[in-house]
Amino acid sequence: MEHVLENEFLRLKIEDKGAELQEIYHKKKNLNYLWNGNEKYWGKRSPVLFPIVGTLKENVFFYHEKQYRLSRHGFARDSIFEAKKNHAEALVFTLKSSQKTKENYPFDFEFQIIYTLLENKLGISYRTINTGNSDMYFSVGAHPAFHIPFIPDTHFEDYFLAFSENENAGIFPLNEDGLLKENKIPFLANENKIPLTKSLFYKDALVFSDLCSKYLFIKHKTLEDYIRISISGMPYLGIWSAKDAPFVCIEPWNGIADFETSDQKIENKKGIILLESNQENFCGFELKFG
Question: Does the predicted TM-score (pTM) go above 0.85?
């Protein structure tokens, strides 16, 4: 089932499956920012990553010496959420643990994705509640794909990414199994711009950590329209596109893929969040369309 959330500026369409955004349409500018899901390149649009981000070593983790299997980015993106409208400009999607989820992930949880509109801004929040009697371990992340070009009669190479601060930042290289190598490759040297080219993503995603910037912008070289993504609330950032595809994914993450050296114990996983019984974690980010 598809749900619509709108105000005078923006209209969202969101599916029950994965609570995944299907459309971000700016009414006043007549622009649709979200990728259309063309399977020639990539069949998703804005999947939510839970209870892991990225790939596990051998797609396996261990907890209390028992083995569990999770595919890349976890199961939330393929699960059916329950939707509820909190008020005119907010939708809450909820997924709860079940016997099925506990076959691959042994924790009791309630996971909420909250979409909120305020003028030309979209807030996306993640609320994770440990409903069990013991500690739980999880990660959560976003994976929205923005259609590039989103302005008519422009081209992919007309756009660039701009951090709000100059960065001295390397990227984690990924191996052929989607695992991270320990040593970063130098990437930004006291600079804030990344020109968009198709070849930028031929070696997979750009994976950052410990950035200084509060925002990342998608901008055109000469036109004023932009997308602003808040990134300071999440410790990791992925930037990705499929090979030669007309989109770019900006992915704030509260978690990260396994490193090649991982011992596969979930409590030791880099970037994992420990949540005690009956406690909750709240995180998220904001999109602004200018």
Answer: yes
Q: Could you give the C-alpha distances from 288 to 9, 124, 216, 217, in angstroms and in order?
A: 11, 11, 11, 9
Map tokens 């990553």 to a residue.
Answer: 49
Q: Which residues pair with 240 in a beta bridge?
A: 249
Query: What is the structure's pLDDT at 67?
Result: 98
CATH number of the 2-289 domain: 2.70.98.10
Stretch 219-227: mean pLDDT, rounded? 97
Q: How far apart are CA 45 and CA 143, in angstroms?
A: 8
CA dihedral 242, 226, 2, 105 (to 10 degrees): 50
Omega of the bond leading into 144 within 30 degrees of 0 (cis): no
What pLDDT score does 87 carry?
76
Q: SS3 sequence, 171-211? A: ECCECCCCCECCCCEEEEEEEEEEECCHHHHCCCCEEEECC
pLDDT at 5: 96
